[in-house]
Design goal:
Elements: E1 13-22, E2 25-35, E3 40-44, H1 51-59, E4 66-71, E5 74-78, E6 83-84, E7 92-95, H2 107-116, H3 122-135, H4 151-163, E8 169-173, H5 181-198, E9 202-206, H6 209-215, E10 218-223, E11 226-231, H7 233-238, H8 243-248, E12 253-262, E13 267-275, E14 278-286, E15 295-300, E16 305-308, E17 318-326, E18 331-337, E19 340-346, E20 357-362, E21 367-370
Parallel strand pairs: 3-9, 3-10, 7-8, 8-9, 14-21
Antiparallel strand pairs: 1-2, 1-4, 4-5, 5-6, 10-11, 12-13, 12-15, 13-14, 15-21, 16-20, 17-18, 17-20, 18-19
This protein binds adenosine-5'-triphosphate (ATP) and magnesium ion (MG).
Length: 372
């Protein structure tokens, strides 16, 4: 008998061809993805790209116009088959940007609520609430009213309430964006640790790329209702498929060029770029979907370009340091190369100064030709 693999732990959550329109515009325009049980997936993208709409579709807080959403063996939504599971039956925990805990209740009462509506025995509720408050570091605040908590503590309480009933899925919509930077950085790590410990499959929405890189097993980069790329943080950073993704995650030098020579199987390629009207050939790695003759964008991270004072054979074009900002463990430089300005990271010991002439050396294995 063939093995039905569609509902295995590997394909725990599946969103297929999801479409959602608001008026005449598609907010989400046919996105598909799968994640494994226990994974932490982040939807990353600029304002208005459809992150919240995707999350709300999964939560069942609105209908969808096409596609389907399944979690485990539960079909949440499939309009073609007339299926729409009510949100309260989806067994989902949610944490939002605004602190959605009830101000007139104590922390304990807030966290106990999801268990009380399930009519769980009082003793068990007490034990589980105590456990989860310890997990989020709020044991000492158990009897305080929600209004007596700081922003960070309120989000911990909201998280405790979201996980106490062990839902099949956790959804987060920018839960840290109201916190100040320092607390946000600390809470990222905390939240990820807690998610790891409870092992609940999670989808996290943010437009903060650092947050996505720190927390996620997988990241989906979205734009205008589409998925641009899905992959691990390392993949998204080091192998972006196009200039949009490259630009959105981290810092990148992006140079327009043309693929002059390439193997059909990918791998190494020669890309021609123009420097002050002169064509220059650079060796690089050919990204997916590109072939000889195609227009391309060279994506090069600043840590993979090196400024040197002595030219060698591989650095024929001199540049000029237009700025060199000392940042402690590195120097953030700009190097003008014709009309292109490179972002370059230099070692402080080099003592590069503004106005100096330098040559650029490239690590061809870290130069990526991507789709424009
Ligand atoms: N209830 C609604 N009615 C009409 N249009 C909506 C509604 N909700 C979202 N939209 C539109 O759908 C698109 C996607 O919105 P969505 O809220 O999903 O974006 P987002 O990625 O979450 O953005 P942000 O980072 O600003 O929260 C936007 O163009 C938005 O204006
Ligand atoms: Mg949103």
């Amino acid at each position: 008998m063939p093995i039905d693999n569609t509902q295995s732990d590997e394909n725990y959550l599946e969103v297929k061809d999801l479409i959602k329109w608001f008026g005449d515009d598609p907010a989400v325009d046919g996105i598909s993805f799968k994640i494994a049980k226990g994974d932490f997936l982040t939807l990353l993208g600029p304002s208005g790209c459809g992150k919240t709409t995707t999350l709300m579709s999964i939560a069942g807080l609105h209908s969808i116009d096409g596609g389907s959403i399944r979690v485990g063996d539960a079909m949440f939504t499939d309009p073609e088959s007339g299926i729409f599971m009510a949100p309260e039956n989806r067994d989902i925990g949610m944490v939002f940007q605004s602190y959605a805990i009830w101000p007139h209740m104590s922390v304990t009462k807030n966290v106990a609520y999801p268990l009380e509506i399930q009519k769980i025995p009082k003793d068990e509720i007490n034990d589980r609430v105590a456990d989860v408050l310890e997990l989020v570091g709020l044991t000492d605040m158990a009897d305080k009213m929600a209004t007596q908590l700081s922003g960070g503590q309120q989000q911990r309480a909201a998280l405790a309430r979201a996980i106490v009933a062990k839902p099949r899925l956790l959804l987060f919509d920018e839960p840290l964006s109201n916190l100040d930077l320092k607390l946000r950085e600390q809470m990222r790590v905390e939240l990820k640790r807690i998610q790891n410990e409870v092992g609940i499959t999670s989808i996290y929405v943010t437009h903060d790329q650092a947050e996505a890189l720190v927390m996620s097993d997988d990241i989906i980069v979205m734009s205008k209702g589409h998925i641009e790329q899905m992959g691990s943080p390392v993949d998204i950073y080091s192998k972006p498929v196009n200039s949009y993704v490259s630009n959105f995650i981290g810092v990148a030098n992006l140079l327009e060029g043309n693929v002059k020579k390439a193997n059909t199987s990918g791998g190494e390629a020669d890309v021609e770029v123009n420097v002050a009207g002169e064509p220059i050939t650079l060796k690089c790695q050919l990204g997916a979907g590109l072939k000889q003759g195609d227009d391309t964008v060279l994506s090069v991270r600043p840590e993979n370009v090196h400024a040197v004072r002595e030219p060698d054979g591989a650095a024929p074009v001199p540049g000029e340091v237009t700025s060199a900002i000392f940042l402690g463990n590195y120097v953030d430089c700009r190097v003008a190369w014709g009309d292109f300005e490179w972002k370059v990271i230099a070692h402080p010991r080099m003592g590069l100064k503004e106005g100096e002439k330098v040559y650029l050396q490239f690590e061809s294995e870290h130069m990526l030709a991507v789709q424009p």
